[in-house]
Design goal:
Helix content is 34%, strand content 10%. The chain has helices spanning 3-10, 49-61, 73-81, 98-107, 123-129, 152-161, and strands at 89-93, 114-118, 134-138, 165-166. It has a four-stranded parallel β-sheet, with helices on one face. Strand 3 (134-138), helix 6 (152-161) and strand 4 form a beta-alpha-beta unit. The protein is globular. The mean pLDDT is 91.
């Protein structure tokens, strides 16, 4: 199946109305049939039909097991970094988004997670920065606002050889 066709077939229709696009559910809460008995949704912060549809579509398009959508990029970053433990290390792009920099240095540093900032446009610098404690290589490509480009494939190979993640 061509990619365009796959995209179209991955979008569910609305069971209630037959709409061919996913409706936006702008509600915070959902009716419970009985206390603790829901139709799969109880509160939009934990799960929402619109977000679930997006996550399922993204997982299908990427041939993945699952996908997760967040209200902000910093929320997504926070979730990924919470995979780490004290003593772990991140090798990160030195031209990093300010919010990510503050999260790494003002929050996660207190939990013993260190960050080594390097020029990730130079694959040799990424390779040289890796240690046995490195658990994530953190890229932004292109960076903002400098628009510097890193070789994502090469960084992924370095990460995978070190049994680290690439974010």
């Amino acid at each position: 199946m061509r990619e365009e066709t796959k995209i179209l077939h991955s979008i569910p229709s609305d069971e209630l109305t037959g709409a061919v696009s996913v409706p936006i559910y702008q509600t915070a809460t959902f009716v419970h049939e009985l206390p603790g008995v829901t139709r799969g949704f109880d509160y939009s912060r934990t799960s929402n039909p619109t977000r679930l549809a997006l996550e399922n579509i993204l997982a299908q398009l990427e041939n993945g097991h699952s996908a997760y959508a967040f209200a902000s990029g910093v929320a997504a970053i926070d979730a990924v970094v919470k995979l780490l433990k004290s003593g772990d290390e991140i090798v990160a792009v030195d031209d990093i988004y300010g919010g990510t920099y503050r999260l790494f240095n003002q929050i996660y540093d207190h939990f013993g997670i260190s960050v080594n900032y390097v020029d990730t446009t130079d694959v040799n610098k990424v390779r040289a920065a890796m240690t046995s404690r490195t658990k994530i290589i953190w890229l932004e490509s292109p960076t903002n606002p400098s628009l510097r480009i890193s070789d994502i494939r090469a960084a992924a190979e370095i990460a995978h050889r070190a049994r680290a993640l690439l974010a």
